[in-house]
Amino acid sequence: MTEARFSFTTKVNGDLLTVRGDTGGEFATNLTYLLDNADKLVEGLTALQAIGHAAVLVAPEPPAQQFPSSPQPAPAATGWGAAPAAPAPAAAPAAFAQAAVPQCQHGPRQPVAKSNWKAWFCPTEKGDPTKCDPIFVDWKKDPAGWAAFPA
Question: Can you give the pTM of this predicted structure?
């Protein structure tokens, strides 16, 4: 693959984004498309980050060991050749650690997400006159809540 003649790279939400084109016109077309769809791009990147955070939370436990392992020698306490300290376990991302399921008078709300909106809905049946209004999550006003949304 050959390198594009025109290229621009920037950081968006901590991820690198590159716009390329073999000609000035192709580069301008690609850049215009990006700018026209910037809100969808940010929404997609935020969703991918949320998926990455969720994967940490739902990672499967390692399988049980079938055979007992041989005892490991004790690491040297200090000095040359001392064993490195074990890394601390990773904590859950702050957005998920703080995420809480909203409640209404009928119990815990249900998360519903579509391509361009997310909301918490009352658990009562459709058409129930006591059904509570949904609570919508706005990605512009609450990016952490948007990223931490479970659905």
Answer: 0.36
- What phi-psi label fits residue 14: left (phi over 0), alpha (psi between -120 and 50 degrees) or beta? left
For 35, the enclosing helix (H) or strand (E) is helix 24-36
Residue 39, SS3?
helix
Q: What span, in angstroms and rounded, lies between the C-alpha atoms of 48 and 131?
A: 32
Nearest-angstrom CA–CA distance, 28 and 25? 5
Low-confidence ranges of the chain (pLDDT < 70): 1-2, 13-14, 52-99, 151
Structure tokens of 145?
Answer: 């809540």
Q: Which of 108, 112, 136 is nearest to 123 (CA)?
A: 108
Pairwise CA distance, residues 116 & 52, whole Å: 19
